[in-house]
Amino acid sequence: MILINNYFAIMFLITIIFYIINFGCHESSCKPFICNYSYNCDNSNNKSKIYIKNGSIFIYNCHIHHWIIGSFILFFFSFLSTSIFKSLLMGGAAAAIIDGLCFDDRFCL
Predict the structure, then answer these.
(1) Are strands 39-40 and 50-53 parallel, antiparallel or unpaired?
(2) What angle do CA 2, 107, 32 make, to 5 degrees?
(3) Average pLDDT of 35-46?
(4) Whole-prediction pTM value?
(5) How many domains does the chain have?
(6) Which residue range is the domain that position 10 belongs to?
(7) From CA 88, how far away is CA 8, in angstroms rounded?
(8) Between 64 and 1, where is the model more confident?
(9) Burial 44-61 (b: 16+ CB within 10 A, else e)
(10) Is residue 59 part of a domain?
């Protein structure tokens, strides 16, 4: 059960503001402004299984959208007892889901 309280609402608003500043638009061609970095988890070659490109997470060349990550966080942490930590996580995860579903490539892997 998701309990909407002040902590949930504050984290939801902070996360939405961060996504608006970071992404600017909701098109797949837009690169993030703040989290625009690339990282290869395997230093031996450029074809690793997990890597980050322009702030997007890829596993086996499959883009993992932030709304998917938010869905997993929302589901797995919903079993925690009511706490400030849970409310903050739920607020951030709900914002990630709503913002992620606004992108034009939301269902493209």
Answers:
(1) antiparallel
(2) 85
(3) 65
(4) 0.74
(5) 1
(6) 1-22+48-104
(7) 5
(8) 64
(9) eeeeeeebeeebbbeeee
(10) yes
